[in-house]
């Protein structure tokens, strides 16, 4: 690692003077080796020796990119369990034979890019367990049979060693070798005994001779390795004339794959591959060859070929004979193979060019430029299931008609890729021949039309139509997709005109199986509430970069549009960049399967409580770049309970206890796996004290200090409130409380028992209390009511002779079943009444029960006055014990009747 930065340099100098040279380098580099799962990585540490302080049980040690000059076996003693040792990119000159002795389990030894010069048998004599040896890019001079001890070696790389010969030994050896890389060496001849040393290597599969300079191949050079399966000659400086020779040398071998990329093979003739006739070659890569001409019959020898790669060439013309004989071909790659180069005309595909390819399943014509597609261009491709023409230029594709693909009528095509082919219009029935098509790509074209539905006629099996990036010229109507009811994926991002979805019924109504719908980037402002009606299988809905703010506004005419009410299986919802400033409480109801919700780049501020409450499965929530100030549990507790990714930065957070405490605490304790930008993008905007600080700087202790005060506040305010209520209650209803209280006390303590009282013999039915002034009324109205069954006690009349007045009153009251007050203003003022009679009467009332009092009102007396002077209120008595003296004479009998009823009542409280 070079230290070129200026500060770095100064640091180095400063460091040098302060601590001396030894520590400086280390202090500027990666600190030390890292060890994970038994693998130690000590690369790029400028080490000159293997560290001795690593765990003894490591199985892999990477010492690459250091300054080792050698590897001493002693330094490996602490790590006997090593399976892999990488000492690549050092300055090792000699391979010490003690390495394999010290590391008996070693399987992989990587010494690439060192300065190993001499390699003798003794150097690797103990490496019998080694399976991979990489000696690439050294300066090998082989002496004797250096590799003969490597009984287990499977992979040997001696590329880039300036080897003068491919001959690595003279005796058969390397019995287990699978892959040999001899590339980038300087030998230009393969002699017949070069590979004799591999004569017994029956597992050999791959021989890499890339970037070599082969000029001469002696007859029989591949004989010793006729089991070879793969030969790589990419980038070789090999004469075109040598290729037929190469092929004939491969004749009769097991060769399966031949890679001839970048070898300037400009022309193929009908004899180039003759030698491959007696092979079972299945894979041939001829890409990047600037190939201009393929003679007819060039591939006639390759009847077993399955994959032919002709990508990135400059082929001018395909004819009927080009692919002649490729009966078994399954894949043909022509990506970038047919182009229009300046100075020449556009390439041509003749009619019936592909006819010999009856087994072809996949054809790629990506990035090609071809003059036209005719009625027979693809004729004969009876097995073709996949056709890719993306990013190509075919004039015939500008206006698709029912003739464009007529030649594919016999192909069971399943996948058609027409991305970026400059289609401008699809006429009715253009795809009608594709009865088996399941996937259709039409993205990145210029399709400008009103999709009436006829365009997709005949695509009965289609499951996916991709039409993103069509420059927003597409319009829809209710019948647009009637011919493709099995559609599962429909992408219309950046393709629709802004009004395309403002139609009723919805164009998506027939698509009951739709699972993915992309309507993003369309500037759509107006949709209908039934846009997604019936799409119960919808899982992914992309609506980002539209203009749907109005749709969810509460002031929207007719209320917000709850267009997600049918899509209960939604898993992913994108609504970023829509100018949303509110979300109706019911907008996301029922979306209990939603895993990913993206609402970034909107104007959301105050989210309503419970708006996310149904989102119990949410894993990913994106709300960055909104105007969110507060993150309250009422909104976010449910959706955040299960998250694995939260993106909420770049909001103007209000760092007060009320707004942010819950969120900060949650962030502190959450086990969400990913919170990108937590340190630098979650900033406080208010209050001033926290402005531009990370919300994680928010001090929760502030809020904790508040808690006792808050409790105190709540307690004290509650107390005050209760006091007020009690005071008011006492003030206005105190009498009632007191009254019932008294009754309760008397009852429980047994001062009175109505039943006992009931049995007592009363002398009078009622003791009548009245004011002096009302005596005449009493005489006139009460006396006449007396008879054998009904007797009143009037103090004036019935006082016991010889008794004091007080005694007499007490006595008489006790003898009376009821106490009857004749209430008038005068009574209230009468001192006797107020001071004694009433008190005693009340005593009696409480002792017995409230039913023992009857009030007869001669005047209308206010309840307040009544309670002041008599300590009685109307509400204390049963309604029938309160009687009003009627104004109208005719009602007097009724009054009498009522009075008798009141007197006849039992004293018992009726519960
Ligand atoms: C290696 O040993 C260390 C202790 O020295 C131990 O913690 C670690 O689990 C061991 N690793 C393996 C792969 O055995
Ligand atoms: C190769 O093409 C030449 C004409 O270009 C023709 O005469 C010859 O018969 C062809 N050979 C084979 C094997 O098809
Ligand atoms: C090619 O395959 C066939 C049958 O699969 C086999 O009989 C024949 O020997 C093979 N040819 C070569 C050269 O491997
Ligand atoms: C192709 O469309 C034309 C009209 O555009 C029609 O006359 C013709 O019958 C159609 N051909 C087929 C094979 O459907
Ligand atoms: C193509 O579809 C037809 C019926 O529409 C069916 O008979 C045929 O088997 C399908 N071909 C393939 C390869 O699926
Ligand atoms: C689109 O086509 C449908 C069906 O033909 C038609 O009803 C509708 O008016 C057309 N819309 C436009 C904008 O041309
Ligand atoms: C929808 O999918 C179901 C199950 O795969 C299938 O049976 C049904 O035919 C499909 N509906 C349409 C209209 O293709
Ligand atoms: C977050 O945790 C740290 C250490 O556990 C603590 O000091 C800090 O006060 C916590 N912050 C909040 C908001 O809980």
TrEMBL record:
SMART domains, per database record: LRR_SD22, LRR_TYP, LRRCT, TIR
One GO cellular component term: early endosome
Top-level taxon: Eukaryota
MF annotations from Gene Ontology: pattern recognition receptor activity; RNA binding; transmembrane signaling receptor activity
PROSITE patterns xrefs: LRR, TIR
Membrane topology: Single-pass type I membrane protein
Chief localisation class: other
InterPro entries per record: Cys-rich_flank_reg_C, Leu-rich_rpt, Leu-rich_rpt_typical-subtyp, LRR_dom_sf, TIR_dom, TLR3_TMD, Toll_tir_struct_dom_sf
GO biological process: defense response to virus; inflammatory response to wounding; innate immune response; intracellular signal transduction; positive regulation of canonical NF-kappaB signal transduction; positive regulation of chemokine production; positive regulation of interferon-beta production; positive regulation of interleukin-6 production
Pfam families: LRR_8, TIR_2, Tlr3_TMD
Localization, UniProt: Early endosome; Endoplasmic reticulum membrane; Endosome membrane
Signal peptide limits: 1-20
Family in the record: Belongs to the Toll-like receptor family.
Protein name: Toll-like receptor 3
Taxonomic path: Eukaryota, Metazoa, Chordata, Craniata, Vertebrata
Gene behind the chain: tlr3
